């Protein structure tokens, strides 16, 4: 319940953090994005909503939008890279200890879309965390992986942080920020829901 509360009111928590810690807030944001993308055991941390909120807050605080984008992009890149190597070197040992439903779903997604899954997965919660792990587990060529990793991370960070920066402080959006966050989360899950329904019908 606390996690849900933090996600839905992430603007309030981030505002307080930025007001108290200032420049150190960059490190917190870096850590959350890195962990969300880099550790296969924590796919539930906020991703899209956090980027949007960070962008919105940077427009009215001491956070610099350009610095924010660079730091979050690096976090996303390093997170996926770490997850890839975890999958490559420890995947066989860890695959039985992670959520099998998520793992199987990501493997099916990967089989269907191939390497571009790394790019597409950036915009899909849970799949985003498992995709680089599965890529490493499947021994995907690292040169191919890093291309999708760099591009996917950059596009993902740019879309959500800049959306927050330019739209997050519009009065109507700011007054209904929790609803916007819920909408972003639901929108992110549409591909998963669509694939689930499609698989059910095919069976």
Task: Give a written overview of the molecule.
With 203 residues, the chain is mostly helical. The protein is 79% helix and 0% strand. The protein has 11 helices and no strands. Helix 2 (10-21) packs across helix 4 (48-58) and helix 3 runs parallel beside helix 5. The chain is globular and about 45 Å long. The mean pLDDT is 85.
Q: What is the H/E order? A: HHHHHHHHHHH
Taken together, the total number of domains comes to 1
Structure class? mainly alpha
Q: Give the terminus-to-terminus CA distance.
A: 35 Å
β-sheet strand percentage = under 5%
Mean pLDDT: 85
The geometry reads as globular
Largest sheet: none
Low-confidence stretches: none
The percent of residues in helical segments reads: over 70%
Give the SSE layout.
Blueprint: H1 2-8, H2 10-21, H3 25-38, H4 48-58, H5 65-94, H6 100-113, H7 117-120, H8 127-137, H9 142-167, H10 171-175, H11 177-202
Helix pairs in contact: 2-4, 3-5, 4-9, 5-8, 5-9, 6-8
What keywords describe this structure?
203 residues; single chain; 79% helix; globular
């Amino acid at each position: 319940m606390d996690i849900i509360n933090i996600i839905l009111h992430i603007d309030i928590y981030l505002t307080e953090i930025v007001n108290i810690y200032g420049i150190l807030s960059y490190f917190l944001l870096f850590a959350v994005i890195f962990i969300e993308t880099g550790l296969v055991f924590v796919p539930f941390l906020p991703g899209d909503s956090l980027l949007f909120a960070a962008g919105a807050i940077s427009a009215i605080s001491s956070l610099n939008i350009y610095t924010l984008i660079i730091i979050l992009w690096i976090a996303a890149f390093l997170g996926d890279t770490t997850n890839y190597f975890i999958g490559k070197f420890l995947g066989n040992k860890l695959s039985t200890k992670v959520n099998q439903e998520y793992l199987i779903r990501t493997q099916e997604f990967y089989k269907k879309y191939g390497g571009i899954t790394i790019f597409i997965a950036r915009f899909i919660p849970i799949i985003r965390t498992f995709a680089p792990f599965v890529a490493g587990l499947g021994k995907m060529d690292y040169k191919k992986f890093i291309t999708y990793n760099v591009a996917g991370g950059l596009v993902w960070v740019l879309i959500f942080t800049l959306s927050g920066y330019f739209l997050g402080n519009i009065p109507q959006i700011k007054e209904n920020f929790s609803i916007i966050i819920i909408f972003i989360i639901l929108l992110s899950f549409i591909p998963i829901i669509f694939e689930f329904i499609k698989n059910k019908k095919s069976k």
